[in-house]
Every structure is written in C-alpha cells, then in structure tokens.
C-alpha cells in the first residue's frame, strides 16, 4: 500500500458526460501528479500540483482540468467524455516538487470506462 | 526529447529461472533519473528503484538487480530465481534531473509459471 488513495476505483459513464476523480496524497506529501494509462498511448503524464499550485503540464486535454485543495487532496475533472478517454487514471504523490530528490508513489488508479 | 524503449513486450519463464528485462533510453540531457516500476495484475504501480545518471554502480536488492550502463544507454533489470508473484508488467521510466514528469516505456509483461 503506497498510501496514495484514489476514488472511485471503477467508473462507467456515457459519452458526453463529466466525471471527477479524487486523490488523497500520502501523509506529508505536498505534490500530486496525474497520469493516464491507455492501451494505445501507454502511461502519460498529465499534470502536477505542488501545495495547491500547478507546477507542470503534460499531455492534458483541454477537456480535462485538475486542482489541488488546501487540504492537499486533488481532483481531476474530465468533461465531454469520449470513448478514447477510457483508461486507468493514476494519481501519484511526493514530498517535494518534481523528480529530483523525491520518490514518486502511485495510487491504485481509477478505472474509467466510457460507453 | 526523452524516450524509453522496452523492446520485450512479453516474456514467459518457468519459476526459478533468471530473467532480464531490457530498457534502453534516449535523452539529450547529461543528467537524468531512471526508474523501474512494477504493475501487478491488481493494477497499482509499485516503485522499485530510482537511479541518477551520476551513479553507474549496479544495485542489488534481494532477488532484484539493476545494471546501469551509460555507454549503451541501458538500465536493465534482472530477477534471479523468479517466482510466480513476480508476474506483472514492468515499466522503465526516465526523467530530467530537474523535471516533473516520468517518461515511461511501453512496459514488459512478465509471466512466471510454476
């Protein structure tokens, strides 16, 4: 158990809908990262927050947004969902920001199926 | 740009065999980090190792060992005396030293049969 908690574990929704994925980082970790794992694209970095501020952006679609709240939990919002958004979405956390000096621990992921 | 290639898509071995998972990377950075993660059938990503480019010393942790060779841009992972519980997808990843994102390879699916 990495200590990173993600909810829900599984989610099935229809095209065009909006969903919110939630992540609680490990105790003491200030950084939260979101990754998407799909069959065709593999594991891709989406976005990172550190202590409430966005620090880095990867291949995140405009239909997707995220935020980190004062209690350090984070939410990833996915809107106007398409079939291709079906994937496993991982949240990860680390103490500091970025890779240097930090071990990044991943949660168990949220399986999203768009039908 | 950074790129990680895990040429072995699937490997199948019999329990107690040794197995090596290959990882070749490309980067223009002179300093960087390399990682291995394990994804068992349950789906979570489990951290195994982080190695910075300054340190080419090989590392051993129990039945796991890692061979980092900067000259060939490789960071291979060997499991000695494999066990059924080692069955998983293994990912190699690369990041910039001052970066935020891990660039993952496509993964190698390892199946260990009794």
List the helices and strands and how they pair.
The complex is a heterodimer of chains A (115) and B (114).
Chain A: E1 5-7, E2 10-13, E3 19-24, E4 31-38, E5 42-50, E6 53-57, E7 64-68, E8 74-78, E9 87-94, E10 105-106, E11 110-114
Parallel strand pairs in A: 2-11
Antiparallel strand pairs in A: 1-3, 3-8, 4-5, 4-9, 5-6, 7-8, 9-10, 9-11
Chain B: E1 3-5, E2 10-14, E3 19-21, E4 24-26, E5 32-39, E6 46-52, E7 59-61, E8 64-69, E9 74-79, E10 88-96, E11 103-104, E12 108-113
Parallel strand pairs in B: 2-12
Antiparallel strand pairs in B: 1-4, 3-9, 5-6, 5-10, 7-8, 8-9, 10-11, 10-12
Low-pLDDT segments, ≥5 res of chain A:
none
**Which sheet architecture does the biggest sheet of chain B show?**
6 strands, mixed
Structural class of chain B: mainly beta
For the residues shown, what is the average pLDDT of chain B? 94
What number is the mean pLDDT of chain A?
94
Q: What's the number of extended β-strand segments of chain B?
A: 12
Can you walk me through this structure?
The complex is a heterodimer of chains A (115) and B (114). Chain A is globular and about 40 Å long. By secondary structure, chain A is an all-beta fold. Chain A is 0% helix and 52% strand. In chain A, strands 2, 4, 5, 6, 9, 10 and 11 form a seven-stranded mixed sheet that branches. Chain A contains no helices and eleven strands. In chain A, a hairpin with a 2-residue loop joins strand 5 (42-50) and strand 6 (53-57). The termini of chain B are far apart. Chain B has no helices and twelve strands. Chain B has 114 residues and is an all-beta fold. In chain B, a hairpin with a 4-residue loop joins strand 8 (64-69) and strand 9. The mean pLDDT of chain B is 94.
Entry keywords:
heterodimer; A: 115 residues; mainly beta; seven-stranded mixed sheet; four-stranded antiparallel sheet; B: 114 residues; six-stranded mixed sheet
